[in-house]
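Cross-posting from the chemistry board since nobody answered there.

I work mostly on the small-molecule side, so proteins are not my area. We synthesized pyridoxal-5'-phosphate and want a rough idea of how it might sit in this target. Sequence and SMILES are below. Is it possible to get a predicted 3D structure of the two together?
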Amino acid sequence: MADIKNSPVDEVFFQNRKIFIKRDDLLDSEFSGNKARKFHYFLIHDFPQIKKIVSYGSNQSNAMYSLSVLCKIKGWEFKYYTEHLPSFLQKEPIGNLKYSLKNGMELKLFKECPYNELKEKNTLSKTIQKDDTLFIPEGGRCETSRYGISLLADEIINFKKEQNLKELYIFLPSGTGTTALYLQNSIIKQNDNSKVFTNACVGGKEYLKKQFFTLEADESYHPTILDTKKHYFGKLDCKMYRFWIELQKKLNIEFDLLYDPYGFWYMMEFLQKNSIKKPVMYIHQGGTKGNISMLQRYKRKCL
Ligand SMILES: *Cc1c(COP(=O)(O)O)cnc(C)c1O
C-alpha cells in the first residue's frame, strides 16, 4: 500500500433525522480509522535512518494495532510496552493484541522498559527520534498526527461544497482529543465554518480540555465539548451496549464499542435538546477489531 484513499460518506436516517457518516473505518482493510489518519504522516514520508518504533498503552489499543500495520509495511521493528497483561490474554491473545502480534509486534511489560524517553510517558506529547528509533506517544497524541487529520478536514470541506451545505456540525467521540482538536483546527485554518463537537470518553470534560491545551494554546481553535456525565474508560454500560446493537440493526454499520455508542448517543441527545436542524456528520473512527474483546466482556455482563 503506497497511500490511503479518501473515505466514503454514507447518508443514513436515525430517529427521523438525516445524518452523514464519514466512514473512516473503510479507509483501507488494514490501515484504517483515526489511527491511520494519525500515522498517515509516517506512511507516506521516508525515514531512511529509522529501523524501529517504540510506543506504549493498553493491551487492546487501536493505536497499537495500527502501528503494527505501519511497521509491517515499512519493514520496521515494533516494540510496545503495556502496564499489565492478564494471564488469559498471555495464553490466548485476542482482538487487537492477537493481530498486532501476528504483524510482528514485540510486547513488553512497562516495568521492563529501559527507555528514559518513555519514563515520563504521561507527559510525552511529541514524537522523539533518537538514533534509529522513533518514540510515539500513547494513542498518537502528537504534532505529527496533524498531517493526516488535516487531510480528513479537506475531504469533509470538499464534501460540504459538493453537497452545497452552508453549515455542517461534525461529531466524534474523544479519547486523547487529538483527532477532534486537529480537525477543528484545520477547518478553521481553511476558513470553513464547520463546527466540531466532541464528548470525553476518557476522564471528564476538564481532562479533555487539558489535553486540548497541550496541543494548542489558542482556545479559539478548540472543538466544543458536549456536557455529559463522567464515565470511566472501558467500563461496561449495558444501556450503551444495547444502543450499539440498535445502531448496528438500524444502520447496518458496525461501530466500535469503546467510543461510538457514547459519541452517537450524546450527539442525538444534543441535537434533540437544542432542536438542531443543521446538517450533521458523524465520524466513524474505526476500531472495530477491538470489538472482539469488548463483546466477550459485554456478553458476560449484559445478556
Ligand atoms: C483512538 C480512537 C478514538 C479517540 O481518538 P483521540 O484522537 O484519542 O481522541 C475514538 N474512536 C476510536 C475508534 C479510536 O480508535
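Reply from a structural biologist on the board:
Welcome over. Reading the output above for you: The radius of gyration is 19 Å. Residues 33-35, 62, 139, 173-180, 256, 259, 285-287 surround pyridoxal-5'-phosphate (CB under 6 Å). Happy to explain the C-alpha cell format if needed.
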